[in-house]
Amino acid sequence: MKSKSNSNSIANIMLNTGFIVYSAICIIPLFVVLSISLSQEQSIFQTGYSIIPKALSLKAYEYILMGNSPILHAYLVTILVTILGTLLHLMISSMFAYTLSRNEVKYRNIVSFLVVFCLLFNGGLVPWYILLSKYLHMKDTFLVLIFPYLVSSVNVLIMRNFFKGIPDEIIESARIDGSGEFNSFVKLVVPLSTPVLATIALFVGVFYWNDWFTAAIFVENNKLYTLQFLLQSIMNNIAYLQGNALVEDVAANLPDESARMATCVLAVGPIIIAYPYLQRYFVKGLTLGAVKS
Amino acid sequence: MQGVKARRTIPVISELIRNKTFYLMMLPGLLFIIIMYYLPMIGIVIAFQQFNPFKGISGSEWIGFDNFKFLFQSDTILHVTFNTIVYNLVFLVTGIGLALIFAILINHIGNRLLAGAYKSILLLPYLLSWVVAEYLLFSFLSMDKGILNQLLHALGFDPIQWYSEPFYWRFILPAAYIWKNVGYFAVIFAAGIASISSEYYEAAELDGATKFQQAIRITIPMLTPITLTLVLLQAGKMFYGAFGDWGMFFNLPMESGVLYGATDVIDTYIYRSLKQMGDFGMSSAAGLYQSCVGFVLVLISNAIIRMYDRDSALF
């Protein structure tokens, strides 16, 4: 008996060591970027990047927050996109999903099929691009950053399955009390569905926050740059300049290394700060999405 | 409900009127999917046109299968197809396999607090964008300042030009995929494990089954439906770089042309022919090729899963 508990504890130590190492791999890259952003430019030049800053400096953050850098503007755009996008997505998708969950709606199965089919087949990037830019005239507008993602098939299906689980009697009794269908939805169904709505809100919010692609393809006006797209174009300019020594004046306008990394830290910051609160909902949401009911 | 009799002749209208609130609530979402998902399907015809952005779809000249001829004549489409499929297979097996192992191991950690902490840390990279990942990776791989080259230097090796050696990227990309996604799958599996009744394990323990045997005989079979669902969801996106999240292939190698051999997938190819070369015809031909192969892959994987376990199939 004793030897068994002994081998158990050894196994436990190995298990924990393994997970600690893997956890370190997940986190250390973030620390490196943070450390670079807090380093003095000089020390980066001399010794390269390091996990612990060799000479501390807050200059990079000063440069970003005080100067008229485009980062603050991008921050504002991204925050607006995230909030508006998430709210609109939730409103439109949840109303849509609710109607698909109600038995009274005769054509719900046809529409559900239309939703599922989107998961299986699509027109591809080019028709999508042409539709938005040529026919909907959304190129270089604020709206284009939000509009293309207002409904997602997967989210509609997840919400529909959740709404199906709400007992009919509740809605029935509201109807007898004279409540309209829309009213019952807002006053009864929405409060009962906060777990699923909060989870979808998180997923959608993180999506909007992290979206670089829409801006990359539709935005040329630098007033509409989102944070991720700004980050990407800073990095790409550097990659481009490294192969092109000729364009020195452009290079002079690029933020230096610590400022670049500080931009990255600022882009990640809100997610990391909110993470402990988000995480529980996230786990719930993953489970909701994965385990079919 | 007055006037039902008169309207019975046109059932669609009577249904729309009876449930008008519901249909009004449905309208924005329905319009959206029709506009954003179904209208672009008409745009597929661009693949058969010499598309001119100024003339639009109706004004452009028809050229039959010429775009496809050009597309399949080039070597690029072959290696891009190869990369897409091979990477996705690797991602599917390693991502889901590792996540399953992690979930089982986390379940064996006695200390709940620690197990919870590992789960949250593993999930963290999932929330970061590929652009941020590009910065994180760069801090390790930068030629002159990167941490890995400093390490190599300290150990007495020559520094490696990571951004110009395609060979390494065959490993860097799967590693990055696992880094970002394994926590996501692990959390899903962990939730599945939590829902398995503990009676099975107690019975197995009485029979003298080791932890390993319990994992093989109880946990993994009980997780089969979740695994199948995950595989099915991913298999549908098999022909899309990193299962649709192709920012990885685009951002991590920093568009380094030298690396295309190892990093180019069908999505980056389509994006580049559209954005950098402005070749609408070719890139929509490639897009149609992608959609069709993707569609067939969903049907096949669904059929296989149906044979194996009817309930886990999508349709």
Structure, explained:
The complex is a heterodimer of chains A (293) and B (315). Chain A is an all-alpha fold. Helices cover 75% and strands 0% of the residues of chain A. Chain A has helices at residues 2-37, 41-47, 59-66, 70-101, 108-120, 125-135, 153-164, 168-176, 181-192, 194-210, 213-218, 227-242, 248-253, 257-290. In chain A, helix 4 runs antiparallel to helix 10 (194-210) and helix 12 (227-242) crosses helix 14 (257-290). In chain A, 38% of the residues are buried. The mean pLDDT of chain A is 83. Chain B starts with a helix and ends in a 7-residue tail after the last helix. Chain B is mainly α and 315 residues long. In chain B, strands 1-2 form a two-stranded antiparallel ribbon. The longest helix of chain B has 33 residues, at 75-107. The chains are: A mainly alpha (293), B mainly alpha (315). At the A-B interface, helix 1, helix 4, helix 5, helix 6 and helix 9 of A face helix 3, helix 6, helix 7, helix 8 and helix 9 of B.
Main attributes?
A: 293 residues; mainly alpha; 0% strand; B: 315 residues; 16 helices
**Arrangement of strands in the largest sheet of chain B:** 1-2
Average of per-residue pLDDT values of chain A: 83
- The total beta strand count of chain B reads 2
Number of helices of chain B: 16
Residue share in β-strands of chain A: under 5%
Proportion of helical residues of chain A:
over 70%
Question: What is the overall silhouette of chain A?
Answer: globular
Low-confidence blocks of residues of chain B: none
The largest sheet of chain A, given as strand count, sense and whether it forms a barrel, is: none
Amount of helix of chain B? over 70%
